[in-house]
Amino acid sequence: MKKSIGRLFVLVVALLLAASAVLVARRLDSRPRTDDAFLEADIVHLAPDVSGRIVSLNVRNNQSVHAGDVLFIIDQQPYALKLAAVRAQSQALEARIDDSLNEVASQVSRADAAHTGIGNARAQLGLASSTLARLEPLLGKGFVTAEQVDQARTARDSARITLDQAIQQAQAARQAVSSVRPLEAQLAGNRASEALAERDLDKTVVRAPFDGKVIGLNVAAGEYAAVGHPVFTLIDTSRWYAVANFRETEIARMAPGTAATVYLMAQPEQPLQGHIDSVGWGVLPDDASRTGDMPRVVKTLDWVRLAQRFPVRVLLDQPPQDVMRIGASAVVVVRHDDRR
Questions:
Q1: pLDDT class for 1, splitting at 50, 70, 90?
Q2: Are 74 and 150 in contact (CB under 8 A)?
Q3: Residue 223 near residue 288, CB atoms below 8 Å
Q4: Fewer Cβ atoms within 10 Å of its own Cβ: the N or the C terminal residue of the chain?
């Protein structure tokens, strides 16, 4: 009797264990979990577009800022002087263009007058030629003297010379008409330089591109800021992510939009809700090196192949800002049974 009860008890325990194993397997399959996770947010390494001495630093480390807030100001005097110089050059070019336009108008007027002189000279030549043509037949009949014919011929030749001179003068006057196009092109280039100088002056005031938190600030006013060299880092606090490293055998079903729960080590009793934003497409294994185009993977654990982990970015829906810190440890549970 006791043996039968013992066997029944062992059988019941075995069935319970099997049922528990099945439930756990289903649970793990529908809600995979990893404690290899941390918080992350987008950041900007804030570097100025112009170089100069920082004359005003309006933030401190770990301070919250809003989009458009003035973070720091670079010495504006050199850029203001450069802008003033370029503007003065533009004004000088404008004055030269005005003077040149007046001179061109005078040149055109002289050219028009010379062209009118061509018409008068041509008319005089025509008159002298017709007079000579009338007198030459009358010389044989004795109606005019040879002297009169010679005078008419001389008048015609003089009129022809005068016409040639008028044509040459008109051509010279037309060629003398200058163009303001070179000055206009120079002014256009100067306008571009003026716009760049205005931009540089505007960039001496560095503003926050978004709402965020200042980190990595270890300089004070008076420091020289160089173009492209970050002064500090700004965290974009509008979007927070939990980056969870899941095994490659688990990520096949982790499509964007899948619901997830995030537990922070700092506040494990306060679950945070979110959804998968993206799944990583590649990692560089720690035990791999490349020779040419072929990767070399060092074998470990005597033929046992370990599953690679890929980062899964979980976008938090409404994260509490007071506990959000980049790099904070987290646990992520993906809920396949609760997809958006």
A1: low
A2: no
A3: no
A4: N
**What pLDDT does residue 157 have?**
78
Q: At a CB cut-off of 8 Å and minimum separation 6, what does 337 contact?
A: 30, 31
Q: Which carries the bigger pLDDT value, residue 100 or residue 339?
A: 100
Question: Is the pTM above the cut of 0.70?
Answer: no
First to last CA, the chain: 56
| Contacts with 317 (C-beta within 8 Å, 6 or more apart), sequence order | 272, 273, 274, 275
Measure Cα distances from 217 to 58, 64, 208, 321 in Å. 12, 13, 14, 20
Q: What is the pLDDT of residues 167-191, one digit of tens each?
A: 776 666 565 445 567 777 888 888 9
CA distances 42 to 222, 239, 265, Å, are 29, 8, 21
Reading the block at residue 136, the tokens are 């030459």
Question: Two tokens at 183?
Answer: 């000055």
